[in-house]
Amino acid sequence: MRRSLLLLSLAALPLAGAGAQQSEEERYRRFLEQQERQFNQFMTAQDSAFANFLERDWRAMQAFAASQGYTAPKPRTLPRRTPTPAPAPGPRPSPTRPTPAGGNTPPANTPRANTPPVPVAPPDNVVANIPALPPMPPRRTTGTPGNRPAPLALIPPASRPLPARPVDPSMLPPEPAPAPTPAPRPAAPAQTLSVPFYGGPIPLRYTRSPLPALGSPVDGKAIADFYRGLASADWGVLAEDLRAQSEALALDDYAYAQFVLRLGRQLAGDESRARLLTWYLLLKSNVDARVGYIGPNGATAAMPVGTIVLLVPSTVMVYNTTYFTLQNEKFFAVSLDEAPSPDGLGRLFTYDGNYPGQPRKMDMRIARTPNLGVAAESRTLRWSYKDTTHTIEVRADRNAVKYLEWFPQVEWDVWFGIQMSQPARETLLPALRRKLQGRSERDQVNFLIRFVQTAFEYKTDGDQFGREKPLSVDETLLYPFSDCEDRSIIFAALVRELTGLEVVGLLYPGHMATAVKFRAAVTGDAVVIGGERWIVSDPTYIGADVGEAMPQFKTVTPQIVRIP
């Protein structure tokens, strides 16, 4: 590109001798090199100014507890539908009488032999009247496979292209004095390290470790000096490999933060520098991350003085965690791949200023699990429907389960929007699709609701995990127990995939159910949304068909959760 622009520029000049043309070309080449040095120096000055800011602008901040996802307790045991009592027997039928032909005819009210009884549909009941569906939340996409957002890995300033343009040689600055030529530094041989990451170790090359030492005690000056060391390090092939692997694995923001944290652990061997590297690379990927450190007044047994804490703003609300308010924005202390501190956070030192540019919030919406490598596991599921026992063998991805193990509790539409893994899609869906063939639309959904109601063992998150933890489809398939929101998530996914019907979540105090918009008329308990009937379908209410809400929720207006 530079050579083409150079030729265009020279073509506009009067013809001159070859020596003059060579001189102008050489001057222009040196001019471009000077401009590039100034560009790189500007980037270095930007990092230097930020490091200077970090030295002085730290202050103690008090943590706040984020709101709870659930405020009402869930049932410890599964509620079961009470069978409707059979109608009282009517008057005995009249005896048969002979016909003129000598045969017998049954009374008019006697059913024909072998005719199945017609099920009585529950009466219509409008549980709630909702004016319209809530708007769909925005989702950031970058055109990556499956529209999954993938952050940019660090790009060394020297590799960024300089915007070239034609320059009139008469406007070139005076010829600078020749600078002394530095002695060439021998290129360091590339080394390879392996970053442990779900499906297997990921190789990354580097010539020199970019991680400097972290001064003691850990304070604003020590962190500022650490930042200067990172900003002036030789990233070289490590930056190239980090970008390439980020794109190949289709890492979203949460997975990218996990990956660079594990990279830092491999390079540093200690958690503090690994977290600082994660902060630095998130900043370089245009994510508005912050760090803080625990001072004497905020120390606990689990988080001693000097502990580094990573803070990020989120595109969605994060529940059941602590946050700090910086410039009117919530910065959450998220746990990336380990249990958060049991003592929580109280007080730490952090800075209240932005990295130069326009950093964005961390995107916590997951369309599907990144390419972490498949670790398929099998499970046999059994359930009964209309006195027939069914059995299917399914597989799910253990790596998809591990990826979400410590994913924070975020808004419900995020969990409903997580797609099932390929092993689950290839086994669960075909097995159920075969069993739905030949059934009516209502019977198909009833079949699926009975499958979810009875093929999985029930236990609350508090009893199974000791904390609130929603489950994706793969997690419900592989964890031994599930509760109401987990069953609603998998039921909604199955109905949408296998019948094409629309589904919404119904969030009650201490309970989650769903509602289905049928194509045909279906009677029963319903919510009316925008003038359309959505039939209540509760995959936790054992024995209940579609159109049957739990008695305690028949007059409760639920919060509608729209599914992406």
From TrEMBL:
This is Transglutaminase-like domain-containing protein. Residues 69-189 are annotated as: Disordered. Residues 1-20 form the signal peptide. The keyword Glycosyltransferase does not apply. Residues 71-81, 99-113, 139-151 have a biased composition (Low complexity). Keywords: Signal. Transmembrane segments: none annotated. Residues 82-98, 158-187 have a biased composition (Pro residues).
